[in-house]
From TrEMBL:
Alphabetical keyword list: Heme, Iron, Membrane, Metal-binding, Monooxygenase, Oxidoreductase, Transmembrane, Transmembrane helix
Record-given protein name: Cytochrome P450
Source taxon at top rank: Eukaryota
Lineage, top ranks: Eukaryota, Viridiplantae, Streptophyta, Embryophyta, Tracheophyta
Subcellular location: Membrane
Primary residence: membrane
Family: Belongs to the cytochrome P450 family.
Length: 424
């Protein structure tokens, strides 16, 4: 091994050791109980595992030590929270305290041009400015409706559907979709709003690099999450034809004899089962199993333990939506639970923001809740409705749908969905 490389490894190890010992010394007595760890060695062993292995290991630790535990990865303390009521205490009852993000590593500073990125911005004036700009100018309900009408947004996601589902569409359909220059319109609009902003503290405008970072964040955050959820829902509709059929029958009641080609945005409100299918998809297959890491600005007490200010807090989204104390047969795909008479008596009243009680949190909750929750729900309902109204989706003989997962940026199907599609 090259001598310089050896020196770098030794220096990094010493640095990690000092930071870890320092952090342990500062907070070990007040941290929640967790598995024993040896500085550096435990880090190394954990980092060799895949994200899915880490998740299942965490599950076994939670069963042993409880739903709030320290995670021995990285030099600063990381706390994992797997229980709905503790997440509620942190993210809603102490919303402002838990709304910060951990300090970014040097590398991510380069990628995200020093925090000019909404998801990683520290909780403060810059984050507030960027978030308010996004929600009031781009994601405002009136704007969201106009994207829906122009169908340009949908076209972008259709492209992703094509990517996921391979060559299942005919050429004319693909051309029709590709011809819509949807992204251009959105980017021009977003850039216009960003050009007008004046940064707090520094009293200056955003640079070109910072604007590019913000636009790419918006496109990245919005596409993978939505298309992955769509893929999981379609997988379940192929696996369970009776659910697909129930959806089609509901649509027929609203759309009539079939002469209308497109389910429109205004039809969606009349399709409760379609919404139930989307909610069940988000519960059973949340596209991210952890929210973006949170942090506290000062040492904070939670459940009689200290959440240290120099660490990170991780909320286990999937665990919460699979809690058998709330959901009967949680691993089953049963949209009926969101219909009248189901576990969630009145589907229309289901509160994804968890304000009174968290039952699932696919979009996060509290101050950092996904700002595009309305847009994402609209896209998902619109896509599912149109995909089922226009096409019939069937499993390939001898190739049953496999719901095994793999983790990339989002949680994907390990074996991509295969199906036969025919026009209804
Ligand atoms: C099914 C679709 C989606 C899901 C499940 C989802 C989920 C999430 C989650 C779990 C978070 C982190 C919440 C937290 O840190 O506590 C988040 C944050 C965020 N999402 Fe989404 N998201 C979706 C779609 C979108 C779309 C369509 C956009 C943009 C068009 C978007 C933009 C963002 C942004 C900018 C943040 C950072 C918010 C902040 O830190 O204040 N997301 N999303």
């Amino acid at each position: 091994m090259e001598i310089w490389l050896l020196l770098v490894i030794i220096s990094l190890s010493i640095y990690f050791l000092i930071i870890t010992i320092f952090n342990k010394f500062q907070s070990s007595t007040k941290l929640p109980p967790g598995p024993p760890s040896i500085p550096i060695l435990t880090n190394f062993l954990w980092l060799r595992r895949s994200p899915l292995q880490i998740e299942s290991l965490l599950r076994s630790f939670i069963a042993k030590y409880g739903p709030i535990l320290p995670l021995p990865i990285g030099p600063s303390p990381a706390i994992v929270i797997a229980e709905r009521s503790i997440a509620h205490k942190a993210l809603l009852q102490n919303a402002a305290l838990f709304a910060d993000r951990p300090t970014a590593l040097a590398m991510s500073n380069i990628i995200s041009t020093h925090h000019y990125n909404l998801a990683s911005a520290p909780y403060g004036p810059l984050w507030r400015l960027l978030r308010r700009n996004l929600t009031s100018q781009i994601l405002h309900p009136s704007r969201v409706k106009s994207y829906a009408r122009s169908r340009k947004w949908y076209a972008m996601i259709y492209l992703l559907v094509i990517m996921c589902f391979g060559d299942k569409f005919d050429e004319t359909q693909i051309k029709e979709i590709e011809n819509v220059e949807q992204e251009e319109e959105f980017v021009v609009l977003y850039v216009d709003t960003l050009l007008d902003l004046e940064l707090p503290d520094e009293k200056r405008k955003l640079t070109d690099d910072e604007i590019v970072t913000l636009c790419s964040e918006f496109l990245n955050a919005g596409t993978d999450t939505t298309s992955t959820t769509l893929q999981w829902i379609m997988a379940n509709l192929v696996k369970y034809p009776e659910i697909q059929n129930k959806l089609f029958v509901e649509m027929k009641g609203v759309m009539g004899d079939g002469s209308r080609e497109e389910v429109k945005e205004e039809d969606l409100g009349k399709l409760p089962y379609s919404k139930a299918v989307v909610l069940e998809g988000l519960r059973r297959h949340p596209p991210v199993h952890f929210v973006v890491p949170h942090a506290v600005k000062e040492d904070t007490e939670l459940e009689n333990y200290v959440i240290p200010r120099n660490g990170s807090v991780h909320f286990m989204v999937a665990e919460m939506g699979w809690d058998s104390k709330v959901w009967e047969d949680p691993m089953e795909f049963k949209p009926e639970r969101f219909m009248k008479g189901g576990e969630e008596e009145e589907m229309a009243g289901f509160d994804l923001t968890g304000s009174k009680e968290i039952k699932m949190m696919p979009f996060g909750v509290g101050r950092r809740i996904c700002p595009a929750i309305g847009l994402a729900m609209l896209h998902l309902e619109y896509f599912i409705a149109n995909l089922v109204w226009r096409f019939q989706w069937k499993a390939v003989d001898g190739d049953a749908v496999d719901l095994a997962e793999k983790i990339e940026f989002t949680v994907l199907m390990k074996r991509p969905l295969k199906f036969l599609v025919s026009i209804c």
